[in-house]
């Protein structure tokens, strides 16, 4: 059972749902006694209890009585002092641990985790808002979450956490927050909802499952260390427990940190380089990703589409290498189009072989996903992660693998959906992939600075 976070209830009004027994009395004492009681309540949560005190009827009183001694040993962040917290740590033989100091800036015009170089691990978590909540509660939630995410991503222990040691290795952690279609109804601002914020139309080849689809709020949590990722994910879920129910969690991975040179395109489980056509300059990202029109509060935000794509490795691996490359329209080793030599060469769809046949099959994935000449805006930024799970019970497949396909754009009605419509109509890869999940979220603008919080422009408009 989750312990009430008394020290934070002085600043934020929690909804009454899921209130723990005794929480009301503790909160009242804090209000009556001012800051002294708040400190005592905070200390009560952090005080280590002996087995006798924990089991005894007077255990709670004993814990409060010892709170002052516990606080006297706390560090500047309100937690247990952490040795070697400043600067790189080493293993004892002089070897540096680079991920200790690997910090991605949290505050700014844009949220991190979009233009940020991809990390090795992903936890994507979608939530449903509890019934009966509204604008006031969503303000409280996003202020709390922003505070927690800001501290976690900077390698600091978040308030309410009793494990400061777990936050010492930020490892390029980013936490990115977005909201779904229903969020605007909950806060009473349906008129502010972007026109494109709705479900992607279901295509004829889709086999969408509710367990991988939809959601009122989403957190994209990426990190180069799986332990830090797990700790951060658990903390964020626990922090929002009074407001939200977890709808689904999708986990993914790429190459481990250091396995590839920085900037190299990662591979999916078909062995293909995945993300070659992403925008590579701030100017291209401004054209394709960042929202610049509509209400002022939405500027610097973006749209995130999440598609869960099952990949049939069993039948894909039957193909010879040439057939795999023809289906994709690119070589597997360099990722170059079949008409080029290097990964980023432009494909030549007019080139033919000695028999007069197109070198790049018009039904290949590259040809079908490429924007038509009269629609250059049909581009987007991919941020896909692999998943590889045990086979589903009762399945005759040896694998349960695929992509957590994430992409960012200004408007999916003008970018993702037209591209996916062409791919659904004809794409060689459709023989080996199936879309089984779909969600659309508005990724809120950045905080702007240390005094801001996610969604502030919308919630306080």
Automatic annotation (TrEMBL):
<dbReference type="InterPro" id="IPR048327">
    <property type="entry name" value="Dyp_perox_N"/>
</dbReference>
<dbReference type="InterPro" id="IPR048328">
    <property type="entry name" value="Dyp_perox_C"/>
</dbReference>
<dbReference type="GO" id="GO:0046872">
    <property type="term" value="F:metal ion binding"/>
</dbReference>
<dbReference type="InterPro" id="IPR006314">
    <property type="entry name" value="Dyp_peroxidase"/>
</dbReference>
<dbReference type="InterPro" id="IPR011008">
    <property type="entry name" value="Dimeric_a/b-barrel"/>
</dbReference>
<keyword id="KW-0479">Metal-binding</keyword>
<keyword id="KW-0408">Iron</keyword>
<protein>
    <submittedName>
        <fullName>Dye decolorizing peroxidase</fullName>
    </submittedName>
</protein>
<dbReference type="Pfam" id="PF20628">
    <property type="entry name" value="Dyp_perox_C"/>
</dbReference>
<keyword id="KW-0560">Oxidoreductase</keyword>
<feature type="region of interest" description="Disordered">
    <location>
        <begin position="1"/>
        <end position="43"/>
    </location>
</feature>
<keyword id="KW-0812">Transmembrane</keyword>
<dbReference type="Pfam" id="PF04261">
    <property type="entry name" value="Dyp_perox_N"/>
</dbReference>
<keyword id="KW-0732">Signal</keyword>
<dbReference type="GO" id="GO:0020037">
    <property type="term" value="F:heme binding"/>
</dbReference>
<feature type="transmembrane region" description="Helical">
    <location>
        <begin position="53"/>
        <end position="73"/>
    </location>
</feature>
<feature type="compositionally biased region" description="Low complexity">
    <location>
        <begin position="22"/>
        <end position="42"/>
    </location>
</feature>
<dbReference type="GO" id="GO:0004601">
    <property type="term" value="F:peroxidase activity"/>
</dbReference>
<dbReference type="InterPro" id="IPR006311">
    <property type="entry name" value="TAT_signal"/>
</dbReference>
<keyword id="KW-1133">Transmembrane helix</keyword>
<keyword id="KW-0575">Peroxidase</keyword>
<keyword id="KW-0472">Membrane</keyword>
<comment type="similarity">
    <text>Belongs to the DyP-type peroxidase family.</text>
</comment>
<feature type="domain" description="Dyp-type peroxidase N-terminal">
    <location>
        <begin position="111"/>
        <end position="253"/>
    </location>
</feature>
<feature type="compositionally biased region" description="Basic and acidic residues">
    <location>
        <begin position="1"/>
        <end position="11"/>
    </location>
</feature>
<dbReference type="GO" id="GO:0005829">
    <property type="term" value="C:cytosol"/>
</dbReference>
<feature type="domain" description="Dyp-type peroxidase C-terminal">
    <location>
        <begin position="265"/>
        <end position="446"/>
    </location>
</feature>
<keyword id="KW-0349">Heme</keyword>
């Amino acid at each position: 059972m989750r312990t009430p976070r008394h020290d934070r209830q002085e600043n934020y009004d929690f909804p009454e749902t899921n209130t723990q027994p005794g929480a009301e009395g503790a909160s009242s004492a804090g209000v009556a006694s001012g800051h002294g009681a708040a400190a005592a309540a905070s200390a009560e949560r952090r005080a280590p209890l002996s087995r006798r005190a924990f089991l005894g009827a007077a255990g709670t009183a004993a814990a409060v009585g010892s709170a002052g001694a516990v606080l006297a040993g706390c560090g500047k962040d309100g937690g247990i002092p952490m040795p070697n917290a400043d600067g790189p740590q080493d293993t004892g033989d002089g070897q540096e641990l680079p991920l200790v100091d690997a910090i991605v800036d949290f505050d700014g015009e844009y949220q991190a985790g979009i233009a940020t170089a991809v990390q090795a691990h992903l936890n994507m978590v979608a939530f449903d808002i509890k019934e009966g909540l509204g604008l006031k509660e969503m303000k409280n939630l996003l202020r709390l979450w922003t505070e927690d995410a800001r501290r976690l991503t900077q390698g600091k222990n978040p308030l309410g956490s009793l494990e400061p040691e777990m936050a010492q290795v930020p490892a390029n952690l980013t936490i990115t927050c977005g909201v779904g279609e229903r969020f605007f109804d909950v806060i009473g601002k349906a008129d502010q909802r972007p026109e494109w914020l709705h479900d992607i139309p279901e295509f004829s080849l889709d086999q969408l499952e509710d367990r991988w689809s939809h959601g009122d709020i989403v957190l994209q949590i990426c990190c180069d260390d799986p332990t830090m990722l797990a700790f951060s994910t658990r903390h964020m879920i626990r922090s929002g427990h009074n407001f939200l129910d977890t709808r689904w969690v999708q986990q993914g991975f790429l190459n481990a940190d250091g396995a590839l040179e920085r900037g190299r395109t990662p591979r999916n489980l078909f062995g293909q380089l995945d993300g070659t056509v992403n925008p590579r300059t701030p100017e291209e990202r401004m054209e394709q990703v960042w929202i610049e029109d509509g209400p002022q509060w939405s500027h610097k935000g973006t749209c995130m589409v999440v598609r869960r794509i099952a990949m049939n490795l069993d039948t894909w691996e039957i193909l010879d290498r040439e057939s795999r490359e023809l289906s994709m329209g690119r070589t597997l080793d360099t990722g170059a189009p079949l008409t080029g030599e290097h990964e980023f060469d432009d494909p030549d769809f007019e080139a033919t072989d000695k028999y007069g046949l197109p070198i790049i099959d018009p039904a290949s994935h590259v040809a079908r996903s490429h924007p038509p000449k009269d629609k250059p805006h049909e581009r987007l930024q991919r941020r896909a992660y692999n998943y590889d799970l045990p086979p589903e019970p009762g399945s005759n497949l040896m694998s349960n693998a695929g992509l957590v396909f994430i992409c960012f754009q200004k408007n999916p009605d003008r970018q993702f959906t037209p591209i996916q419509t062409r791919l659904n109509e004809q794409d060689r890869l459709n023989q080996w992939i199936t879309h089984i999940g779909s969600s659309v979220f508005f990724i809120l603008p950045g905080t702007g600075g240390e005094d801001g919080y996610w969604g502030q422009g919308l919630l306080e408009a």
